[in-house]
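Postdoc handover notes: sequence design on the structure in folder B. Input tokens:
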């Protein structure tokens, strides 16, 4: 390829176009190769083979490139008069890289490959004009490529800076969120500890009272064994009955006391209440031995009460141990134990133990059949159960009922928590998981109004979902669904 026309021809492509058009007019071939196209007409499609050369004489053409993995055509360049269309595909023989569409009514030369080569041989002037015009087009493409590369590098640098800023902002946001979650958890834990102190006080006081009474009863027992050595087996039976004794409801106790009054006419009310808890077989033995009143009856009833004291000590000790265990389990931080295989029912029981001061007057209905273990953060899930249960307690007040059940299918475990409160206004039910949204207003008892928002984030981190709705029977229903496999980690 030889260039003779100089750079002024490259800078003024319109003049070259006019010269080429004049050549075709003078040779009488304009009608053969000249083509007019309307706005929006497709000249060639991306991927089509190109066997003609297109030279735009008038108007403008938009080039489009299809986005990867989509059907969207994205505009990449606009060609004006003096531009070749599909020049790279024509010269290389490769399929067209773009789709060309007339942006305005346009006029162009469409010359088949064979005709171009023939014209090159027959008309030296045409070949020189075409060489210059091709060079001008390629230089334009090269210049635009350099400009685009510079813009791309600039955009990449800006994106890199923005990415670093976003990463820093994300770290700061994560730290702020962690602090909020920690504050919310500490606020909740503070209330639970207060409830714990109240709850542990009751079994501790009972334990101390039982211990004092036990000391008195053992001294009496020693004296009694010296006086009545033959009744040793009977004493043991009374003691065992006391160890296993339940406590009848008020109506049953009143009915039994009235019946026993007929046989133990001189017994005191306190003795009758104890007798009402003694098994019938042992009552019959007391009647056979004519143990009907006074200190003698006390001697025998003391053995029954002795068993009850040991039962009380054992249950109180277990209650305290259970409360302590639940508090230790609940208060574990995320850094102590994070993701592990757990039985979600254990966390629910721990939470019920620790919230017992708030829910002890409620009717509690538990249906927690065995479910598969899942990989989870137990401390985080305990916070979810606590938030839902305490919200239910706030809604119900002093009286109500709480129902908790769980189940699973092949993919998920779900936990459903129902309360008998007033339910959630339909206008706000979609907002209750938003940050800082609270229905308690000025009556918030604890926390930052983030309980349900944090619960939602925790469940999402576990790859699950949490939702709320109103029951047709009244009250709210919260449902937590957790996947059995492939739990996400935060």
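Designed sequence:
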């Amino acid at each position: 390829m030889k260039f003779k026309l100089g750079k002024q021809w490259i800078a003024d492509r319109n003049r070259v176009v006019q010269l080429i058009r004049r050549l075709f007019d003078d040779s009488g071939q304009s009608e053969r190769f000249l083509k007019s196209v309307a706005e929006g007409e497709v000249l060639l499609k991306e991927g089509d083979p190109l066997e003609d050369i297109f030279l735009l004489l008038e108007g403008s053409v938009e080039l489009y490139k299809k986005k990867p993995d989509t059907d969207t055509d994205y505009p990449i360049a606009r060609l004006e008069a003096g531009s070749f269309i599909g020049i790279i595909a024509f010269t290389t023989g490769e399929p067209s890289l773009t789709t060309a569409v007339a942006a305005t009514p346009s006029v162009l030369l469409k010359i088949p490959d064979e005709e171009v080569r023939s014209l090159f041989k027959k008309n030296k002037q045409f070949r020189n004009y075409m060489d210059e015009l091709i060079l001008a087009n390629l230089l334009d493409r090269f210049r635009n490529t350099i400009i685009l590369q510079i813009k791309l590098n600039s955009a990449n640098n800006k994106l890199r800076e923005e990415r670093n800023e976003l990463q820093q902002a994300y770290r700061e946001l994560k730290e702020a969120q962690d602090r909020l979650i920690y504050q919310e958890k500490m606020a909740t834990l503070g209330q639970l500890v207060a409830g714990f102190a109240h709850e542990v006080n009751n079994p501790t006081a009972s334990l101390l009272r039982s211990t004092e009474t036990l000391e008195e009863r053992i001294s009496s027992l020693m004296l009694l064994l010296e006086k009545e050595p033959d009744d040793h087996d009977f004493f043991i039976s009374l003691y065992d009955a006391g160890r296993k004794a339940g406590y009848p409801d008020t109506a049953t106790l009143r009915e039994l006391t009235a019946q026993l009054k007929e046989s133990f006419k001189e017994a005191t009310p306190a003795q009758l209440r104890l007798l009402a808890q003694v098994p019938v077989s042992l009552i019959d033995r007391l009647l056979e031995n004519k143990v009907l009143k006074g200190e003698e009856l006390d001697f025998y009833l003391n053995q029954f009460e002795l068993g009850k004291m040991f039962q009380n000590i054992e249950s109180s000790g277990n209650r305290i141990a259970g409360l302590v265990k639940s508090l230790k389990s609940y208060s574990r931080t995320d850094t102590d134990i994070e993701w592990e295989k757990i039985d979600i029912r254990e966390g629910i029981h721990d939470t019920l133990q620790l919230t017992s001061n708030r829910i002890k007057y409620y009717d509690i209905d538990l249906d927690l059949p065995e479910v598969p273990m899942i990989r989870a953060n137990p401390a985080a899930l305990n916070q979810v159960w606590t938030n839902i249960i305490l919200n239910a307690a706030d809604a119900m007040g002093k009286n109500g009922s709480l129902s908790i059940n769980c189940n699973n299918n092949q993919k998920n475990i779900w936990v459903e928590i129902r309360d008998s409160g007033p339910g959630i206004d339909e206008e706000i039910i979609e907002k209750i998981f938003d940050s800082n949204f609270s229905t308690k207003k000025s009556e918030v008892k604890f926390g930052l109004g983030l309980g349900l928002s944090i619960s939602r984030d925790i469940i999402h981190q576990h790859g699950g979902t949490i939702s709320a709705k109103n029951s047709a029977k009244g009250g709210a229903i919260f449902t937590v669904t957790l996947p059995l496999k492939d739990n996400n980690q935060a």
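Context for whoever picks this up: The first helix runs from residue 7 to 11. Don't rerun without checking with the PI first.
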